[in-house]
Design goal:
heterodimer; A: 555 residues; alpha+beta; FAD/NAD(P)-binding domain; D-Amino Acid Oxidase, Chain A, domain 2; Alpha-Beta Plaits; 3 domains; eight-stranded mixed sheet; 26 strands; B: 284 residues; alpha/beta; Rossmann fold; nine-stranded mixed sheet; two-stranded antiparallel ribbon; 7 helices; 11 strands; 23% strand; binds flavin-adenine dinucleotide; binds iron/sulfur cluster; FAD/NAD-bd_sf (chain A)
Chain lengths: 555, 284
């Protein structure tokens, strides 16, 4: 009976940068390729920082695959790059342009709705030429198996589809990776949570306040004591006529501090340092959030099984190189490499070898070494050891540490250390590099900001209310509604908060038979599908049906 | 597979669009003409046929020259290939009978006989639901009405349809008919595209049609009386046996009804409410 099912040579699930690169490469190699994307339009589900990089050493770049990409799909190129170390009002700014430019051919800011929908058009044209095409509003909900072997995909909106290759480019919280047992959603230490606001600003104001021309842009990063001790940092990127301002934090640290993501974002938005750019004006166009895998811990070195290959976030291929976040570029490389692996294997009459070829290419092309640097494994074994970490942390914070910082700055070492790709890739995931060191640097070397920043970001209710949803059945169900099991989501969910009744997760005290139970309740209506509660709460977590759920206009 | 959809323009009865004079008569000049809303279901059914089986879709209407825009709207919706408008002064003021005779002659006039003719359920202005079945009667073809789902076997030249019995969603029967055949799509008709291939073709058709609909007049043929050469006794006002004796406006509900506010916590007052309601409640 499965012989009646439709068959394509390749099915690509997800049309973000990974899926687009895979599909374009397959089509260029003449492979009949069907692309399935769950959003009403590509990009409508996606949130990124985001700066997309074209690395000199990468096997593939987005403009290599789509030559008009930079002129049609991206915003401004990044021509200046700064890190601000913050302690109260004290700020010490370090120019990180060298680190940013290391191994970089170019890097542009992007907004995902615009970028991905542009890619969608190109990918559909290319794949249509070889007998396939791209469909939106279709959510793949599982793998089709025959005698235990993966042979295709199942969807809510379509009959099952068989394929010789299945490329899962379905992003973070990949249901296909989970279905195949190649990734799990257990450990908060393997993830970051990114939250972002898009702020309206005319090009003329950007030019004046950032001192840039039309074809120039700036990136500013922020770390130090402005985030309640949560490990992570903030960013501000210039788009054509808006700003992307956001935060990225280690998920385990957010949970440990029971911090509210939207409040941490507000802490950045209202810091006096931002007054020079916002100048008392603030119109938020969109609020969004998404999990981000940490490749150092999460990237699967063997991301394939039978006919299935995982690319991009689905395989955990998201590199945090110190403060620089590189996910989209690696998704592009991996997508194209998986496609290349399949078409080579198919030409040789052995399509079953595609997965192994893909794994080899990831290694030989140097992608895996960037995602999981061995030197990080060694350094982190020492640096993240509890005792060592706390000694380092107190040392940096001590008068001796400060003397060191001052000396390092005098000798130019500080700038050099921050601009060293090597140092950045071995940085341990402890409080020291994220909080203690930046704070100590700002205290020792910083100058106080005199301006007042009196912008008032919208509250959570307004932020949620401004988003577009089309809700179907609840796509998340609580398996265990005790506070002990699922309570972390009340604060970690970016659209919920402890004292807010209008979000997804709510804290509830229920009296039964004289004793009080501490429970949580869930209403998925305002969910932005960030994936956080799939990790930090005990849930049955799925994406909503095709075309349903939140729709980002900016991304 | 060649399908034809019969459609017509009706006054836009939506709030804010429609305009009536003091006596409650429709002011045609002030009310825009739109495609009869129920025809959308016929269009959906024709589109599903085109997507699944390929071929061409034609749209036909009888009416004044202004209906061209209605056909254009239909072209964009159903990705139609060509449009036909039966239009002539002599055909004006026709009732459903004269209209059916005109349309049937129009169908005979097409270069290629359609395999399936789709008609809407009923029109928003006349509400009769006669035109489709009467046109079919003129053609002497089988007809399936109240269709909610459709499958065509091209090789066997048969059509299998799920239809509502007596228009009731609770009772659905499956019937088979030979082609050519008339189909009246019910408002409950839901097109289904469960194959990726069909959705991709749907996308192709949409892209193709955008251009065509802009230059729709290149794909439009007007059949006038000279062309169709109809018996003058069977068309227009002369061919219409229907006599409209009068029009009774449906009285509007009074804007303010008598209401008494009751405090739900006032038990005595609530008891009175229940007493008032009792006669309207179920028998037990
Ligand atoms: C706040 C924030 C800041 C970031 N900053 C940067 C940055 O500056 N630079 C950078 O390079 N990266 C950044 N990233 C990371 C980057 O966004 C991701 O690494 C990148 O998008 C991964 O690409 P992908 O193609 O693997 O997945 P995605 O871009 O997530 O695309 C996955 C696609 O699959 C679709 N999909 C998912 N499930 C299904 C399904 N079941 N069926 C059908 N379709 C499905 C989704 O709708 C989506 O379109 C940031 C992320 C966040 C959240
Ligand atoms: S309910 Fe879960 S997935 Fe949805 S926004 Fe909250 S944490 Fe994210």
């Amino acid at each position: 009976m499965t012989d009646d099912y439709e068959h394509y040579e390749a099915v690509v699930v997800g049309a973000g940068p990974g899926g687009a690169a895979a599909a374009a490469t397959l089509a260029q190699n003449g492979v009949e390729t069907l692309v399935l994307e769950r959003g009403v339009e590509s990009g409508s589900k996606n949130v990124s920082g985001g700066l997309i990089y074209a690395e000199e050493s990468a096997p593939y770049t987005i403009d290599g695959l789509f030559p008009e990409f930079r002129s049609e799909a991206s915003e401004r190129p990044v021509t200046e790059y700064y890190l601000h170390n913050v302690a109260g009002r004290n700020v010490k700014t370090i120019d990180l342009t060298d680190l940013h430019e290391h191994d970089t051919t170019w890097s542009d800011a992007v907004l995902r709705r615009h970028m991905d929908s542009w890619l969608e058009g190109r990918v559909h044209e290319m794949t249509r030429e070889t007998g396939g095409g791209l469909l939106t509003g279709v959510r793949v909900d599982g793998l089709l198996r025959e005698a235990g072997e993966i042979v295709g995909v199942t969807c809510e909106e379509l009959d099952p589809i068989k394929a010789d290759a299945i490329i899962a480019a379905d992003g973070v919280n990949s249901e296909l990776a989970r279905d195949a047992g190649l990734m799990d959603w257990e450990d908060p230490e393997e993830w970051f949570q990114g939250v972002k606001a898009i702020v309206d600003m005319p090009a003329s104001a950007i030019a004046e306040r950032f001192g840039v021309d039309e074809d120039e842009g700036v990136a500013h990063l922020f770390s130090g004591d402005l985030f309640e001790g949560v490990r992570g940092g903030g960013f501000l990127y210039t788009n054509d006529d808006s700003l992307s301002i956001g935060t990225v934090f280690h998920l385990d640290s957010l949970v440990a501090e029971a911090a509210e993501p939207h409040e941490l974002l507000d802490a950045l938005l209202t810091h006096p340092l931002l007054d020079q750019w916002l100048q008392g004006e603030y119109e938020e166009l969109e609020y969004g959030a998404k999990l981000v895998p940490d490749s150092k811990k999460a990237a699967n070195p063997s991301p394939h099984q039978g006919r299935l290959m995982l690319v991009g976030d689905a395989a955990g291929q998201m590199q945090a190189q110190g403060p620089i976040i590189k996910g989209m570029n690696h998704a592009v490389s991996a997508g194209a490499l998986a496609a290349e692996a399949f078409s080579e294997a198919q030409t040789r009459g052995r399509p079953g070898e595609a997965g192994q070829r893909y794994e080899t290419k990831l290694r030989d092309e140097g992608v895996m070494a960037k995602l999981r640097p061995t030197r990080y494994t060694v350094a982190s074994a020492v640096g993240e050891n509890g005792a060592v970490a706390s000694v380092t942390d107190s040392l940096v914070d001590s008068p001796l540490g400060r003397l060191g910082i001052e000396a390092a700055d005098r000798l130019g070492l500080l700038r050099r250390a921050f601009n060293s790709p090597f140092v950045m890739s071995v940085m341990p995931d402890t409080r020291t590099p994220y909080v203690t060191a930046p704070t100590a640097i700002a205290e020792a070397l910083g100058t106080p900001v005199r301006e007042e920043n009196d912008v008032e970001p919208p509250d959570l209710a307004d932020r949620i209310g401004d988003l577009t949803y089309d809700v179907g059945d609840p796509h998340i169900e609580l398996r265990d509604n005790s506070f002990a099991a699922s309570g972390a989501a009340v604060s970690a969910c970016p659209v919920s908060a402890k004292d807010f009744g209008g979000g997804c997760y709510r804290d509830e005290k229920v009296k039964t038979n004289g004793h009080e139970e501490h429970l949580v309740s869930l209403d998925t209506q305002p969910c932005v599908e960030c994936g956080t509660c799939a990790i930090v709460a005990d849930t049955e977590w799925e994406h909503p049906a095709g075309g349903k759920g939140v729709e980002f206009e900016q991304g | 597979m060649h399908t034809l959809v019969l459609t017509k323009g009706v006054p836009d009865f939506r709030e804010g669009q429609v305009s009536f004079d003091e006596d409650g008569h429709l002011e045609r000049g002030k009310t825009p003409t739109v495609m009869n809303p129920n025809d959308k279901h016929a269009l959906e059914a024709a589109l599903q046929t085109k997507v699944r089986h390929g071929g061409t879709v034609s749209l036909m209407s009888m009416g004044p020259p202004g209906y061209k825009e209605v056909l254009q709207e239909g072209m964009a919706d159903v990705y139609a290939d060509d449009l036909y408008l039966c239009s002539d002064r002599e055909m004006g003021a026709a009732d459903t009978w004269a209209t059916s005779i005109t349309l049937s002659t129009g169908i005979d006039h097409l270069d290629e006989e359609p395999d399936v003719v789709f008609a809407g359920f009923k029109t928003a202005d006349g509400e009769t639901g006669h035109t489709g079945p009467q046109t079919c009667w003129c053609q002497d073809w089988p007809i399936v009405t109240h269709v909610v789902a459709l499958d065509i076997d091209e090789e066997e030249r048969t059509l299998r349809a799920k239809r509502l019995v007596e228009g009731d969603v609770e009772e659905i029967e499956t019937v088979e008919a030979p082609l050519p055949c008339f189909v009246v799509a019910d408002p409950e008709f839901e097109p289904t595209y469960r194959k990726a291939e069909h959705r991709l073709r749907h996308k192709d058709l949409r892209a193709e049609t955008q251009k065509r609909a802009e230059n729709f007049e290149d794909h439009l043929e007007v059949y006038d009386q000279e062309e169709l050469n109809l018996d003058p006794d069977f068309i227009g006002l002369d061919g219409s046996p229907t006599i409209v004796a009068g029009v009774d406006p449906i009285p509007k509900a009074p804007p303010e009804r008598e209401a008494t506010m009751v405090d739900p916590s006032d038990e005595g007052a609530m008891a009175d409410v229940f007493e008032e309601l009792e006669p309207y409640a179920g028998a037990d």
